[in-house]
Amino acid sequence: MDINKLSDQVYVSPQISADDLADLKARGIRSVICNRPDGEGADQPTFEELAQAAGEVGLEMRYIPISGGLVQDMDAEAFGDALQSLPKPILAYCRTGTRSTTLWSLAQANTMELPDILSATKAAGYDMKGVVRRIANGGKTPVDQEDAAYDVVIVGAGASGIAVAASLKARQPGLEIAVIDPADAHYYQPGWTMVGGGIFDAEDTVRTMGSLIPRGVHWLKSAVAAFEPEKDAVILDGCRVVKYKRLVVCPGLKLDWNRVEGLVETLGRNGVTSNYRYDLAPYTWKLVSGLKSGRALFTQPPMPIKCAGAPQKAIYLSADHWTRTGVIGDIDIGFHNAGGVLFGVKDFVPALQSYVDKYQIGLNFFSNLVAIDGPAGKAWFDVSKPDTAVARVEVEFDMIHVTPPQSAPDFIAVSPLADAAGWVDVDQATLRHKSFENIWSLGDVMNAPNAKTAAAARKQAPVVADNIIADIKGRAPVSQYDGYGSCPLTVERGKIVLAEFGYGGTLQPSFPSWLIDGTKPSRLAWLLKEKILPPVYWKAMLKGREWMATPEKLSAR
C-alpha cells in the first residue's frame, strides 16, 4: 500500500481495499476519507463495503466523492471540516491520491504559506502547480489573462463532443480546436443494454479517450469549473483560464443516483443493478440469467432521461431470456414508470403493448422510485396519479433494475448558459445559444425538446459544425436540426422496434417501410443494432464521416 505523508496528521494514498484497513489501523491511522465516487472503476470496492470493514477494525470513515478532475470550493470546505472533526491521524484516498492532495492543499490555503503547501505535496509525490493560483487567491478565479486560447473550444468529449470536433476538422482542417474532458475512457453507452442482455461484452463498449480525439485537436484533460461567456472564457478546475472565439457545450447529463434514498449503498449487490453504468451492466445479466423465480422490478424516473426507451429495453430482453429458459411463469415482472404512458410517441405503443401482454408485465404508471433497501429486498415508490394525493407504496423484489434520476450537470445548471431548469438554452433549430451568439450546444445537456440519444447527437454534430463554419465566414446559420432521435427498442433477442421520430413525435424513418417498418418488430432492425451501428459509431460518427446525417438546410423563417 502506497501511503504518502502531507503532514503529521494527514496522509494520502491511491485506492485502498478492505484488506488494507487492518494494516492502516496498525500503523496508527484512526480515520479514512474516501474521495473517489463509487462506480468509477470496475474493480473498485464501494464506499459502503469499505466503511463496513473499517467499522469492524475500529476506523471511522467519511465519504466526500469528487468527480475526476473537478474539485469545487464546497468540496474543499467539506474536506476541511472533516479534517477538523475526525479523529487523527487521517488517511484520504482517491484513484491516485491527486484529488485528495488537491483537497488538502485548498483546505490549508488560509492556514499555511503557499511554499509550505507546495513543498509538502511535492515531497509526497504530487504536483499542485495546476491549483497554485487558486490556493493563492483563496478560491477567486482571475480571468484577465488566459492560459491558452483556441478558435473553438468544446466542453465534453462524449459522442457529441468528439463528433462535432471531427466534423469541424473535416470542414476546416486549419482550425485550432480544443476538447476539454477529464475522463480517461470513452464509452459506447447504447451498447450497455446489450451487455445487460448477455449479448455484448462490456469491454467492447469502451475505448481510451486518447485514441478517439481527432488528429490535430488539443485535449485538455481537466474539468470545467465555470463559464465567463461575457469574457469568452472557460475556467478549468485549478483556475486555468481558456479563451475561445467560439464555444461548444456538450458535457452530457448527470446521473443523480443519490436522489433515491439508499440506492448508492446497494448498487451492484443485493439484486440491485442498472444498465446506466458500465460496471453494473454485466451484473444485470448475472441477475437475469440467475433468476429462476421471484419478483423483478424495473424503474423509470421522471423525464428527461437519456434514451427514454432504455428502461423498457432492459425489461424486454430480460423477459425474453426468462421465456426462452422456461421460467417466466414463475417470475412476477413489474414496470414502475413515473410517467403516464408506455412510450411518448403513440405510433410505437401498439407493438410495445403486445410485448407487455406477451411477457405479462405489470404496468405501474405515475410510480416513481424514491427509496430502496437492498439487503431487505424492498423498494418504495411515490405514486402520484392525476387528481389524487401522493401515496407511498412498498414493493418487495428479488432483483431490481434502476434507471437513475437525471439532470443537467451542476456546473452547467449554475452557469449563465442555463435556462430556468438548468439546461443550456439554445435555439432548437440552429442549436445556437439564445443569448450568446458564439456559443452552441448539442447532445443531452441542451434544452431542445428532442429525445436524448446518441442517434440525435449524430444528426446534431454536422448541424453545429455547419453553422460554426458559416459564422466564421460571417454568414448567418445555414443548417437546422429537425429533432431527429432514434430509439431501437429491443423487444426480444433478434427483434427490434426501430422508433425514429423528430420534434412533436413526427415519424422520421430512415428506411422505406418495405425494408424496415419502425412501428413493428423487425429482424433487420436487430441486425442494424447488433452489427452495423457500433462500427458506424466508432468508425464514422467519431471520425467526421456523416453517414445518413447530412445537415438539412435552414428553412426561411
UniProtKB/TrEMBL annotation:
Alphabetized UniProt keyword annotations: FAD, Flavoprotein, Oxidoreductase, Quinone, Transit peptide
GO terms, biological process: sulfide oxidation, using sulfide:quinone oxidoreductase
Every Beta-lactamase hydrolase-like protein phosphatase-like domain range: 2-110
Listed GO MF terms: FAD binding; hydrolase activity; quinone binding; sulfide:quinone oxidoreductase activity
Residue ranges annotated for the FAD/NAD(P)-binding domain, each copy included: 150-263
Pfam families the UniProt entry points to: BLH_phosphatase, Pyr_redox_2
Regions annotated as coiled coil: none
Designated name of the protein: Sulfide:quinone oxidoreductase
Cofactor(s) annotated in UniProt: FAD
Keyword Flavoprotein: yes
InterPro entries the record matches: BLH_phosphatase-like, FAD/NAD-bd_sf, FAD/NAD-binding_dom, Prot-tyrosine_phosphatase-like, Sulphide_quinone_reductase
